[in-house]
Specification:
By secondary structure, the protein is of the alpha+beta class. It is built from nine helices and 15 strands.
Length: about 300
């Protein structure tokens, strides 16, 4: 029994090294030394009689045998985790911890309205939220799931949408429009001062406009570039620029008269928000009920 337990422990360490492609990152996550992990992997390879990892001074990658073993180990551990989660959910109440990495805009848009209800319903679930627009490997970084726009999620991940398609609009303050004029067509924006948004992948967002069968894509000009929607909307509120953003984020300011939607007939639907993770068999119950709560409350409607 002790031997089997040690074997499972070493296989779990091996899988973590394969996922990180790094002894250092795996060691940091486990709180162990690189030399200890290297010794355990050499011992595992000796017991199995086959080399599992290709090691260089700069990288670590699985051999063909190692990749095949990693796939089997991942499937087996998924089944074990699934059984534990089901047991806890059915007989111990829903508890545990969930770590998610989300877009910064998703916090006020999606999570802030839902969290009070979620915390009241599931007080024993520890939920950790990291807000970060940079796209990252959530599995390698130790997160249970990420939350991004559906169109940007890698094809090898499981994606679960939690909103309807989200509408994007151009907005500006009434004072700005009185001074600079109201655009009558998306192309008129080329003569305005706009805040340009940079995505977490480093790209400048081009402004999409749709009306019936017409579709236009505008490379908006402007002296301010920001990766923060908050900064962009603040610039619009100050009366100095036009901003392209999610209609749901601008709505409170529009309803209060601080901002005005430009060209409303050209408002463009964008992809929905979606959680993504690496395996259907390793979804914590806490994440499942968070998704269920978001879909029930529909904060972006």
């Amino acid at each position: 029994m002790i031997s089997m337990r040690n074997e499972l422990s070493d296989l779990s360490v091996f899988l973590l090294i394969v996922r990180h492609r790094s002894f250092r990152k795996a060691a940091d996550q486990l709180g162990l030394s690189v030399s200890a992990l290297s010794h355990r992997m050499k011992a595992l390879e000796a017991r199995l009689g086959v080399r599992l990892l290709n090691r260089t001074s700069r990288s670590v990658s699985p051999t063909a045998a190692g990749a095949a073993l990693a796939e089997k180990v991942a499937a087996g551990l998924d089944i074990i985790h699934e059984g534990i989660e089901e047991l806890q959910g059915r007989f111990g109440g829903i508890s545990g911890s969930v770590r998610i990495n989300v877009l910064r805009d998703a916090v006020p848009l999606l999570l802030a309205p839902v969290l009070p209800v979620f915390r009241e319903r599931y007080p024993t679930i520890e939920l950790e939220i990291a807000a970060d627009d940079h796209f990252l490997d959530v599995t390698a970084e130790g997160f249970d799931a990420g939350l991004r726009y559906a169109g940007s999620i890698p094809e090898d991940m499981i994606a679960v949408t939690v909103t309807e398609p989200l509408m994007w609009v151009a907005v500006a303050a009434p004072a700005y429009l009185e001074r600079m004029g109201r655009p009558q067509h998306p192309s008129d924006l080329l003569r305005h001062n706009c805040v340009r948004l940079r995505t977490g992948r480093g790209q400048i967002v081009r402004w999409d406009f749709d009306r019936g069968e017409e579709h236009l894509e505008i490379d908006a000009p402007g002296s301010l570039i920001s990766g923060s929607t908050d900064i962009a909307i603040s610039a619009a509120l100050s009366g100095t620029a036009v901003v392209y953003c999610l209609e749901r984020l601008a709505r409170p300011h529009v309803e209060a008269g601080r901002l005005e939607i430009l060209l409303p007939e050209w408002a463009s639907p964008g992809p929905p928000l979606a959680f993504y993770y690496s395996s259907r068999r390793q979804v914590p119950h806490g994440l499942q009920v968070l998704i269920k709560t978001i879909r029930e409350l529909r904060p972006t409607a």
